[in-house]
Amino acid sequence: MAELKTLSWLAIVRLGLIQTCLGALIFLPTNTLNRIMVVEYALAASVPGFLITLHHVVQLARPYIGYGSDAGGRRTPWIVGGMIILAIGSMTAAYGATLANQLGWVGHVVAGLGYLLIGVGSGAAGTSLLVLLSKQVSDQRKPAAASLVWFMMIMGFAVTGGITGQLLDPFSEARLLAVVCGTAAIALVVTFTAIIGIEKPIESPVINAVEPEKKPPFTEAIKEVWDEDHARRFTIFVFASMLAYSAQDLILEPFVGLTFGWTVGETTALAGIQHAGMLLGMFAMAVSTYAFKSRTRHVLHLWIRGGCLVSAISLTLLAFGGMTSTNWPINLNVFVLGVANGSFAVAAIGGMMMLAGQGRKQRDGLRMGLWGAAQAISFALGGFIGTVAVDITGLWLSNPAASYGLVFLAEAVLFVWAASLIFNIDQQVNADTKDSDVDNTFALKNQLGGVNP
User: Fold this and answer.
1) What is the mean pLDDT, run by run of 10 residues, along the chain of 453 residues?
2) Which residue segment(s) compose the domain that 312 sits in?
3) Could you tell me if 198 and 149 are in contact, meaning their C-beta atoms sit under 8 angstroms apart?
4) Are residues 403 and 276 in the same domain?
5) What letter does residue 203 receive in the DSSP assignment?
6) How many domains does the chain have?
7) Per the omega criterion (within 30 degrees of 0), is the bond before 170 cis?
8) Cα–Cα distance measured from residue 380 to residue 378, given in angstroms and rounded to the nearest whole number
9) What's the CA gap between 16 and 37, in Å, rounded?
10) Do 376 and 60 form a contact (C-beta atoms < 8 A)?
11) pTM, 2 dp
């Protein structure tokens, strides 16, 4: 076995650039095309809503994608291939949207194909990139690397929104297609350039090496991973926490507008305050885990649990404030919620990277794909369930603050449950590590003829 070559910070930043490109290619179909179909083309809001849900649902294939990348052991082809599919999907979705305005259902079918490709491409590239980071970044750097890569993806959203927003005015279909194709071309060039020479071989040929283990069927492999206690618990944790995280997205601003009478401009600014808090939370998590290198895993899990619990408290306070006071400090409450959300979300990504290699070998991609699929399902369901829950509770409650408050409280319960799950995972991994140390010591004694080392 060759010594594991860990990635430098420059290499991590280069991978972050790929994540930036991934964010740029996802932004246009999920944000810009959404607005164009509803406003410029006067389509029902459910049309882009269904198309965007498609790109989440198709990411149920992430476990199979990760399983496929495990077979060859190299992630670079999956990252490059995924980005190519994502770029093609983005252009197809834009072309389909323009056709929908002229040809109706034909355009919807083409756009649907584009969103399916977006889901497959982002799943392949995103999953494989995280696996590459988990395998070739040292444990001490993984949480900080997760923060950096996540931050650079958000930058992809922000930069793309700012630049393309200027380029799309005045709007025309030709201009839309030119902007989308240009964004795709730039993203692919940056990806191809950034990935060169990043992935290093982990294993070197060994003389008289044992025949590699035969690859089991996918159903058998995923059952083996699901039987791993920490992998199963972490999958449930990801689903529960991200469901609570995403369920608040579409109801927070309407809640503040209805309950406290804030204007559109004021609630939009409030979203900016929340995102500022999220960035602060990410930065604080990264700095603290890197500062305490000797206890990286422990500090990381503290951030995950703490972020979930503070998110639960913040949501509970929002519900309480909406039902009791018109002078509630909403800005502070939402800022704290943003800090908690940001720190726990990026710490959870770091947790994925730390845990992906725990358990049976050559299942890193499968585990990461399983967790990515759980996250995609929760994102697909979160916004929908949150809004439906508000509508249902509003049918028998005449007070909007009460109906929104009940949904916030339900999200808080999910966060508390998620915090308990991550605590159990921490305990299980510690126990497994001690067992592994005992087994290694026993094996070393046998190699030394029973002599105490």
Assistant:
1) 66 92 88 79 77 84 84 86 95 90 83 93 91 84 85 82 82 89 95 89 47 70 86 91 88 87 82 86 87 77 93 96 88 94 89 79 83 87 84 85 93 94 68 46 40 37
2) 218-431
3) no
4) yes
5) -
6) 2
7) yes
8) 5
9) 31
10) yes
11) 0.77
